[in-house]
Specification:
The chain is an alpha+beta fold. The chain is about 20% helix and about 30% strand.
Length: about 350
Amino acid sequence: MLIRIYRLLLIISLKVMSLVCCHSRLSGILSHLERDTHPLFPSRESTHPLFPSREGIGVCEEGLRTSRNDRNRHGGVVLLMNLLVIMLISIISLAPAYAGSDWNITLKVSGGGIYDYCIAGVKADATDGFDNLWDIPSPPASLNTAYINTYFPHPEWNHVFDRFRQDIKSPDLPKEWTFEVASNISGYLTIQWSDLRNIIPDKEAVLGDVDGGGGEIDMHTTSSFIFLNNNYPRKFMVKISQSIERPSPPQDLKAEVIKRNSVLLHWKKNHELDLAGYNVYRSAVPGGAYQRINDFLISEHKFADEQTNKGKTYYYVVTAVNESGGESRYSNEIEVTVKRGK
């Protein structure tokens, strides 16, 4: 591909150079003919071909200046076209590292005011092994006192590096990416990713906490995962598969604070024949970072959240789940503030 592009640019540059040269030569000929001083047809004022008149000398000097200007102009065109070729080839050769994937997911891990990230994705001409064009090694470990290192471990590739920041695979599904998070930060770390509805809306995406008990979350219904760091590398897995049918999102979610500071949620019932139940998610901030608060699927279209604190504000959404395990998008978000009692 790059060779074809280079050839095309080379042909264009040669065509431009040829047109400029022809234009310059034609202009020179016409200029001399207008003055009747073309080298093949000396001026009448010239007394001898070897001893031209002053006017002839002036014409010759003008011709030399024109020739020099033409050469300078030609050289500028050549330099400009070569720089253009080099610039485009550089852009094309560097762009695939991130932007060239058919799709990719950036997994950002943050905590303690710092972060690191890794990128999983697919590309039509990539393989599931090491691809020199797509798979990028991780940078050297940070020398800072506090650090977060996020990477795909691939010792089986027998490469100079065994940790990679970017892992691009072939597009056939299902696919799995195992990544690790190593950090010396005490406390909680957060894994975040963009809204996958804008990246892979037609595919299933699951994040598995391999070293944390094997729990899995739907990456479509939430965009973050919080875990307690134990100062040891923690392994996670991203699974991408073909989409399964999903029910419609629950409609008209409403909430009210009832006795003992519980929050009662209720919504319109879904009418899918294969409906299995509902999940309720809660967050302390609007628009995301939702965590499921029900242990089992909810069979009714209402739910009471009794794990609340006075004076706190919560944000709720609900999803519907069918018998195949397909989970809907979020319902509308509802804000509830549990007022302080006397």
